[in-house]
Structures are given as structure tokens and as C-alpha cells.
Automatic annotation (TrEMBL):
Name of the protein described by the UniProt record: FAD-binding PCMH-type domain-containing protein
Single GO MF annotation: oxidoreductase activity
SUPFAM superfamilies: FAD-binding/transporter-associated domain-like
Alphabetical keyword list: FAD, Flavoprotein, Oxidoreductase, Signal
Protein family per UniProt: Belongs to the oxygen-dependent FAD-linked oxidoreductase family.
UniProt key word Chaperone: no
Amino acid sequence: MLASTLAVFSLLTAVHAATGNANTTAICNSLLSALPTDIFWPESLTYNALITSYPFLQLRLHPRCIVRPKSAEDVSTAVKILSKHPEVKFAIKGGGHNANVGFNNVDDGVTIDMQSLNQVNIPQKGVVTAGAGALSQDVYDVTDRHNISAMVGRVGVVGIGGFLTGGGVSFFSPEQGWAADAIINMQVVLSSGAIVNANQTSNSDLFTALKGGQNNFGIVTRFDLRSFAAGPIWGGRITYGNGTEDALLRGFTKFKGPSNYDPYASGWLTFDYNGARPKLVTPISIMWYTKPEQQPGVLGNITNVKPKLADSTLIAPIGEFARNASMAVKGSPKRTIWATTTFRISPTIVHNIHRLWKDLVPKICDQYPGVSSQLTFQATMPAPKTGTPPNSLGFTSLESPEKDLVFLQIVFTFTDSSATEGLQSALKDFVRIFNAAAEDEGVKHRFVYLNFAASFQDPFAGYGADSLSLLRRVARKYDPQGVFQRQVGGFKVFNGTSKPSSNWHHRY
């Protein structure tokens, strides 16, 4: 067996040393030597299955090799090798649902696929442990059986790693806050290869920074999450008929009125423009109420609007809703880009933004074949309560963002790559136009939700100066060589863009 393994290793080394970027190929061969069962090359079935697992076509880049670690120690080994070669870019993939190119995959670099670190366990009452490669559905499939839940994604196929470290909005967030606030502990691999715990008493500054700071400090390999008793909830998708848009916008405005705050109500309101059927806008709500015996509560302002074309609301286990929400993501893969902005509710702001979008979106989408667009409104979550561990999202315990803040998501979905540049430009225009509308009403807010942000946006600046200062201090402390600033894509705390900063020591 050993002789056979060495023969395969020698053959692969010879083949890959002769092709591709010499430095990256050499690093891949070093990784193969250290982790012989964890490395996959472009001609392998595993490699190609991973590439096609990305839900959006623009994410299907082609790294020189893929590392699929089986343990935190494997991740440590890979990071030790990669950190010695600053010219080699690498990416970390959990669920792979961030739509920004270069955030979870890389061309001609190394992609670390966390898929094998997906174990979910209940070690004791009140705690769920989940590997950073777990999907939200993996968590629900375990917790539903025990009539408990944890704060993970509302779409089952979304990975928990990027979701939690970007803040995260869960079914229970209106009552319990950002999903990140339910993290008890994180196991983290630092750029040195050291494996540490980050929690309220150990590396507490790293613990705070990771709850909103994503991949700027290390690679999380395990989350220990607070669990709580939870049974079936009420909710589902409603598609509305013609003439309902104004009533739905009025209903959403009432739902978000500060005096109407309901900690059991969550979800979003979407307007969908289908380019295949010009000028047809379909309103859709996807809402949940976590006290099913009291449903629909304040959501009735939206869910009672008629006529309805379809209504799939029901009482069901939490995991069933997450699984159903995944169906739209699992459909025929397309290119998808998005951006976000935040504002305070007013009697007219969602009406004005909707009107601007509806006036402009046909002119944009009709320039390209098969383009659709979605405009989605949803509520911002509560800040951490006084006496609880803070996060890095920039809200203090004295604020109540859940009472009146709304963040929107503007999305374009398409198939033709030649439309990318034009639609990216339109996305920037929409953000600028929506921000101007909010500023005109005096309701613009600085917050930019990282998990919905476009690569041209700067969510860390939106956290505020104090939070950004903390994030930078923590990055310098735990990653003094700037490995996660220089070699890994994503939003960077030092240069405010998705591009790794090669000269961060000199600039900051």
C-alpha cells in the first residue's frame, strides 16, 4: 500500500510540476506531501464535483488544487504551508453562497474546502457544536429531532461559517439578536498554524472581532452554539396578484413601525422582475412566526393582503422551512450578483425606493437576454443586550436597530457572462440612487450588512470607527504577517475592498 501511494504521489508531482503556475503547483505538491489524502487536482472527480457545487456560475473558478481537511490539525498544516508563500492566493469555502467572485474560490490558487468538517453534535444541554463546514440544514436535521434549535441560516444550503462570522439573521433573530451573538466558542486556526479557542474569557478580543469580521483573523474550524427549546413554527411563501404592491408596501411599513415591533416575526418582502416576461413584477413574501399559536401577529399587515396567487404557509418543523427555502437556490445555476443598503423606516421610504427600482429595472434588464431582478426588504436585528458579549457589527446595547432599521437587497440574476459588467454598473447605480433617496428623507443609515454586500461596498466602514479600529487591532495581533489580508479574498479590514492588500504594513 505504501509503495503504491508513493508511486501515485511521484506521478502526480511530475505531472503537476510541469504545468500551471510553478509556484502554486509547487505549493500544491507540498500540501500533497503533508496531506496525501486531502488534496485534489483538476482531473479528479472530487475536484470537478466541488467546482460544480458552487450555486452561482461566476463562482466556478479553477484553483490549482483543492484541500479538503478532515480536522483542525489538517487546516493548521495547510495554513502553515500557505503562509510561507505570500505570492500564492488561497480561498476558504464553507457553503459557497457568497456571490462575490474570489471570496470563496480562487483561480490558479488553492481552495480550502471545509466540507468534511461538518459534524453536528449535542455535547450537553444548551449547546450544539458544529464543524465550520456544516450547512444550516445539517444543524436543523439534528436539532429538530430533539425539539431544540440554534441560530443558523434560514436557507438550509447556506454554510454556517460565513453566515455566522458575517453576523447572520436566523428565524429567531428578532427575539434573540444576530446569529453571531449565540456563539459560545469558536475553535480557530491562526496564520501561525496555532489552534486556539475564542470565547468570552479566552482570546475575547478575537471572539468579538470574529462576530462580524469574517476571514480577517484566521479560519474557524468549529462553532459551539447556544441551543434553546423550539418546536414547529408557522410560515411560508405567499405569491400575490396584480395590484397588491402598494398595499404590501403599506403593510411592510406598519410591520416595521417602532410601536409594532414583534420579537416572534421575521422574514422578507420581495418584488421580482422577470425579464422573460417584460414589465411583470411579482410580489412575494416569505415570512415566519415562531409562536405558531399566535400567528400571524404583526405579519398580518403583509400576509393578509389579497389577492393571492399561491399561499404555502403552514405549521412545520424549522428544518422543513430551511429545506423549502433551499429549493430556489438549488435550481438551474445562473450568475447572481447583489448589493445592500440600510435605512430607517418612514411613511414613504419603501414606497419611494420601490418606485425608483420599478421605473429603472426594465430599462436595465431589457438590454440583456434572460435577466431578472429582485428587490427585497427585511428588518435589522437587535443589538447585544447589556452584560452580554459584544459583537463587531457596530451597534451598542443602548441602540434598538430592530425597532426601525430596514436593510434591502438588490439582486440581478442572469446567464450571459457578457452582461456582468453592465449589471455590476447598474448595481452600483441602484445603491447610489437608493442611498440618495434615503438621505433626502433623512433616514440613511451607515450599516451595510456584510453577507448581502457587493464587493465594491465596504461593510466594515459601515460598522463605525470604533468597531473598525477594534477589527484592525485584532488583525494585527493575531495575524501579524497579514496572511489573511494579503493572500485571502473577501472584505478586508485594512483596505476596505475585496482585493488582498499586498502592502498593508506600509499603508496602515
